[in-house]
Specification:
By secondary structure, this protein is an alpha+beta fold. The chain contains 17 helices and eight strands. The protein has helices at about 50-55, 95-100, 100-105, 170-180, 190-200, 215-240, 245-265, 270-285, 290-305, 315-325, 330-340, 340-355, 370-390, 395-425, 425-465, 470-495, 500-505; strands at about 5-15, 30-45, 60-65, 70-75, 80-85, 110-125, 130-145, 155-165. Helix 7 runs antiparallel to helix 8 (about 270-285) and helix 9 packs antiparallel against helix 10 (about 315-325). The two termini are about 55 Å apart.
């Protein structure tokens, strides 16, 4: 298992003549300990088209220093990155290669930049020697190894201040205050690699590139589509690292994409989007193999824990654990196999191709306000039909199924509102918020339907094993009451979402 640490640091411009000020005058710092110089030799790897650098990822093989080896860094926020470390080896370690697969795919990773750094290290500590931060003065020589500018070199000096593990970020503010008083200013580059690429690229555009502003209906839909594609790619490493909620978030992005393709068939050619939608449905299903079970386990577990001991009769917790284990698909390994498979990589390639050369229909060139509002209202009408049908049915299985279909329509309408929000503004924001409230009520109702079926199964198993089924029946009744409460709540929530004024705002 690769080592991972959260790196919190700030970089500052310096010259060969720059001297560090007295940092013991920074609030919280009692001592500075000079750790002396060290030589670092780092080779940064990327694809020929610099895909990793484009996403602010850095992959390097570094010798020298206390942490030599392979390092892969993912951006978290400004000045914050997650660094994953693997021991020094000649070839790229397989765990790191896997984390890059959604971006690299079938492309080759090769040396792109070499950085030689003469580093002078100082530790900032408390009076008892507790490390607060590490301050380094780095004299850097960068050499471009491949691509445009190959053979070009650049030299600079910078100061790097890295917070100690578990340290208080206020220390960084205090140190920066002292550095600024000494005339030292923050660096304009987010990393050494970014600066090396910028300074070794001939005829680079110093003005920077501005993002295209969406003008047409197609522009707005494509912006939303590209956001979801980017989310899937970005979450791939998080899923592989089993980070909390990453599978669910990736699954939601696939659903948003598929829903958008359906909503905007007048703007996007369905001959291309329908096959992609089918593949996205497959991916969402694979991601959801154990996700739904996890949600159900959490719901039932919470219900059991809330019961007083006098109502928990028989081996309830043990029965619940055994039932859950029996239903587990072992999908953690299966999900990784899916992400490593060609079908998934081909889907990512196809999504990129759609993004680069979108299959726009003539209607995509229209003004966004009218085209997008029509699409949102069409999905709203679909939702209204399903909600009306469900509310007209008597309580029972048929109504439960109808409410579940309404829930799916609510998701689609919500995603349509999200995509339209940049163009339609506050009316789309209000619409999305109210439809989300409908979706929440319908979602909790459906969770109760699923929970009741599970509780019935558990009761049958308990009875067959000679155990009392009392607790399962009690929980079934409580879930039934929860579902009835949601059904009573739905008309009021729906009335707010169906307000004529809200629809009139969207038509405007």
């Amino acid at each position: 298992m690769a080592d991972t640490k959260r790196e919190i640091e700030r970089k500052y411009e310096a010259t060969d003549d720059t001297r560090l000020p007295d940092l013991t005058r920074a609030a919280g710092v009692d001592r500075t300990v000079h750790r002396g110089p060290t030589e670092l030799d780092a080779v940064y790897y990327d694809t020929a088209d610099l895909r990793l650098a484009a996403d602010a990822l850095t992959l390097r093989r570094r010798t020298g220093g206390a942490d030599e080896g392979w390092h892969l860094k993912f951006p978290v926020a400004t000045g914050i990155r997650d660094e994953i470390h693997e021991p020094l080896a000649d070839a790229l370690p397989r765990p790191l290669a896997a984390l890059l697969r959604s971006r690299v795919r079938h492309a080759e990773i090769a040396p792109a930049v070499r950085l030689l750094s003469a580093r002078d290290v100082h530790h900032l500590t408390t009076a008892d020697g507790t490390l607060l931060a590490e301050v380094s003065v780095d004299r850097v020589r960068a050499e471009r190894l491949a691509g445009e500018g190959a053979g070009t070199t650049a030299d600079w000096t910078e100061i790097e201040v890295e917070l100690a593990d578990g340290g208080d970020p206020a220390i960084l503010d205090a140190v920066e205050k002292r550095l600024r008083k000494a005339g030292v200013r923050p660096s304009e580059s987010s990393s050494k690699l970014a600066r090396a690429l910028a300074e070794t690229t001939p005829n680079r555009d110093e003005s920077g590139r501005e993002k295209d502003t969406p003008h047409t209906a197609g522009d707005h839909v494509l912006a939303y589509v590209r956001e979801q594609i980017r989310t899937i790619v970005d979450l791939d490493p998080a899923v592989r690292r089993d980070q909390p909620d990453s599978v669910h978030r990736m699954r939601v992005a696939t659903r948003r994409l598929r829903s958008t393709f359906k909503t905007h068939r007048k703007l996007l050619d369905r001959e291309l989007t329908d096959p992609l939608g089918a593949e996205l449905k497959w991916l969402a299903a694979e991601l959801g193999l154990d996700r739904d079970q996890e949600v159900l386990d959490e719901r039932l577990g919470t219900r059991v824990e809330a019961l007083p001991a006098t109502l928990t009769l028989g081996p309830v917790r043990g029965r619940l654990r055994a039932w859950s284990a029996a239903r587990s698909t072992g999908s953690r390994r299966r999900i990784i196999d899916v992400l490593d498979g060609n079908r998934y990589l081909d889907l990512l390639d196809a999504l990129d191709a759609l993004s680069a050369d979108p299959p726009l229909r003539p209607a995509a060139g229209r003004a966004p306000e009218k085209a997008l509002s029509r699409a949102v209202l069409k999905d709203y009408g679909r939702l209204a039909t399903r909600v009306g049908h469900a509310l007209g049915l008597p309580p029972g299985p048929e109504r439960d199924l109808a409410l579940h279909e309404a829930r799916k329509a609510a998701k689609r309408a919500r995603y349509a509102g999200e995509a339209a929000r940049p163009a339609l503004g506050k009316p789309a924001k209000r619409f999305t918020k109210r439809v989300k409230a409908v979706q929440t009520v319908l979602g909790d109702h459906q969770d109760s339907v699923v929970a009741r079926e599970a509780l019935r199964t558990l009761a049958i198993q308990s009875h067959a094993a000679g155990e009392t089924a009392f607790t399962w029946g009690l929980l079934y009744g409580r879930e039934e009451a929860a579902a009835e409460a949601r059904e009573r709540e739905l008309p009021g929530v729906w009335a707010r979402a169906a307000a004529p004024g809200l629809r009139a705002d969207l038509k405007h």
